[in-house]
Amino acid sequence: MTSTIERTDANRTGAPALTLRGVGKTFGAGSGAVTALRNIDLQVQPGEFVCLLGASGCGKSTLLNLVADLDAPTVGELQVGTARPSFMFQEAALLPWLTARRNIELALQLAGQGRRERRIRADELLALVRLEGQGDKRPHELSGGMRQRVSLARALAATTAVGEAEGRPGMLLMDEPFAALDAITRDVLQTELLRVWQATGTTILFVTHDVREAIRLAQRVVLLSSRPGTVVREWRVGDGPMELHTDLHTEITGRLRQVITSHAA
Amino acid sequence: MPHEPTPLHTGRGTDENLLTSPAATAVLEDAAAAVAGLDALDTPTTTTRPWWKRAVSTGLPPLVALVVFLLAWQLVWASAITAEYKLPAPIDVWHAFAKTVADGSVWSILWTSVSRAFIGFAVALVIATPLGLLVAKVRVVRAAIGPLLSGLQSLPSVAWVPAAVLWFGLTDATIYFVVLAGSIPSIANGLVAGIDQIPPILPRVGQVLGARGLSAARHILLPAALPGYLAGCKQGWAFSWRSLMAAEIIAAGPLLGFGLGAFLKEGSDFNDMPSVIAAIFLILIVGIGIELLVFRPVERRVLRARGLALTT
């Protein structure tokens, strides 16, 4: 375990994993144009776990799409200091014709890994998300929570494989990955994610609309306003169990509510 | 909007605590147990029936239906409501069929038609697949010929026969033209529908995993479109077989081989009702046989792998 933690610490120093300066995104042009993001400034350190928090319409997903290079910013500067980021969606989005293991292997294959290597790595990742022996099942034979864990394993596979291929650490973008799950499964997967994050030291940018989830997971919570999305405020989350953070929870919830009610008029 | 970062505590430093303290270990073990429990509860259950039960439940009903049909036919014939030359006895049809088997002509008749249908279908696949890809992925092409392609599906390909006879004369070219005109639109439309029905999330998954261009087509697009493509192929086969029979019945000549359609036409020309009905049955049996032996197993495999049920 010690070696893992040393590696983790090494990942958490050096050049920023992500830098956004004055980033804005506008869809369409003229009178019908919609500004989704305006003047976003954000820096994420390597190995850091950051939650983007906001109500619907705050452009959280748009921001992730920009970082993932699925879309391009209209203005501003966006620098990714890690290898090509990998992405975990709100739905598991597994390829239904591939087994759980092949879904993970595809990420490794597309990053250029060989067959033997892929197989070993995929089994390791399946074990990491506690799905040993389930690798030969197809997505439809798995429960929602299991599918989401395969999706997590696939995203981790992509992060590490791309990182190795490019010779620098990876980054994981997560777009409300647990939102569609029931409360108990979500709780368990949050614990799992923290465990995996501590074991791998990957930079994680996690989008959510759930204050509790943000406090539980992140080292830093960034609150975005809605339409257009801008950074309202950010908080560092200290260590310790949830019970220690009730004040912070109240404060962030109050601020989020303020942001939402400002749209009512 | 000003940023107001509130640094409470930098660095995490909990890694060791979380992983080694007894309380944390208990939490982790608890999580592991919770994961295992949820998995056991949530995993969809699958039930498998023994093969003989499946064979009985799928094989018996059509067999019973066939026996009932033959009995009804025999009854109607025995009651002599209709003239003998209009409705022969089942046994006479059987004799007409047995005669072609006895002199061996049934094999050459079947071979002529089935080989034509297969060659026609194969050529249609080669033409329709890139055509379907173009229509599905290139907006201009879709706007230009998309409606025409789906419109052509409702045009009975027998309508092409007179034109084809004038263009190509009574040759194999006429037959193949009609077969292609029947099956290409179906296959191409099937592929277009298959691609259109791909959930938009899947191409994005390919993109974030780094699949571009050809590798995206190979790993994401084509496998995702496969069920629709297969359905199109199945329909394309049915259309090509139908068109072939229409062409063989209408276009008959010395340059054309003697296929099932010609066999049927000959029976009709000689007022030989048992031969006509035997020919109809043969056409039906070949059509159903190819569907059951070729398309059904492939489709079943593809759909089952995706957790989709076979509807027909």
Automatic annotation (TrEMBL), chain A:
Residue span(s) of domain ABC transporter: 18-253
Keyword vocabulary terms for this entry: ATP-binding, Nucleotide-binding, Transport
Source species taxonomy: Bacteria, Bacillati, Actinomycetota, Actinomycetes, Pseudonocardiales
MF term (GO), any: ATP binding
Domain of life: Bacteria
Protein name according to UniProt: ABC transporter ATP-binding protein
Pfam families in the record: ABC_tran
InterPro entries: AAA+_ATPase, ABC_transporter-like_ATP-bd, ABC_transporter-like_CS, ABC_transporter_ATP-bind, P-loop_NTPase
Gene3D superfamilies linked: P-loop containing nucleotide triphosphate hydrolases
